[in-house]
Amino acid sequence: MAKTVRTAKKSKSLASTSAASRKQATRRGKTKAGGGVKSRQKAQAARRRASQGASSKKKVARASQSSVAVLERAPASPAVRAFEQAVRLFNRQEFERAREAFQAVIERFPTEAEVLARARAYLAICQQKLQAPRPVPRTAEALYDRGIIELNRGHIAPAITYFEKALKLDPRADHAVYALAAAYARGGQVEKAIATLRQAIAMRETYRLHARRDPDFLPLRANSEFQRLVGIEIIE
Fold first, then answer.
1. Given Cys at both, which of 40, 79, 90, 177 links 200, Cβ 3.0 to 4.6 Å?
2. With pLDDT > 70 as the criterion, what percentage of the chain qualifies?
3. For 15-65, how does the pLDDT look when each residue is reduced to its tens digit (9 = 90+)?
4. 15 CB neighbour count, 10 Å cutoff
5. Do the beta carbons of residue 116 and residue 109 sit within 8 Å?
6. Is 2 within a domain?
């Protein structure tokens, strides 16, 4: 009788264990199923967002293309073209030329209200830029650069001053010596030009050939001393 009771208890225990296992399996199955549903929902949401993004990009592209087409169909007026040319000078920081260009726009197109307002605004900025004091160059290289700018503008005296100051700070700057010789030549100071060019050639031999071809030394082409210095054949 006792054995029968123990057997019955074991059967009940096994049955409860099996039921618990089935419940755990059922819960795991539900969890996995729920996770699968959530994953599918996330994937669908991601696809919808991607589709919306692509649609937005297409709309932007179509809008840009239509804007370009409108611009191509409607050529700019003479006032707009003149204004754009002045703006290009402004963007290159050529403020003197830009100022003149904006003034010309204002004088030529007094009835173009929108263009006129913008031209006046740019003109005011140009005037401020030109009135602002320029930073004083402190290094030999900065002085040399400023001298080159002045020389290219045809301002010979300021160019010579900058080159001389640069050489005081760095006497071994052979490019500044050569530039000073070119400035002397353009300024008509023949003796100084030849002496300074001789110094530059002594520092760097390649300046002999440069001077032979440099238009800055054209005023010295007929000078026999210059011809001998740079190796130009003298025909008598």
1. 177
2. 66
3. 444 444 455 544 554 444 444 545 566 666 666 665 555 454 444 345 445
4. 10
5. yes
6. no
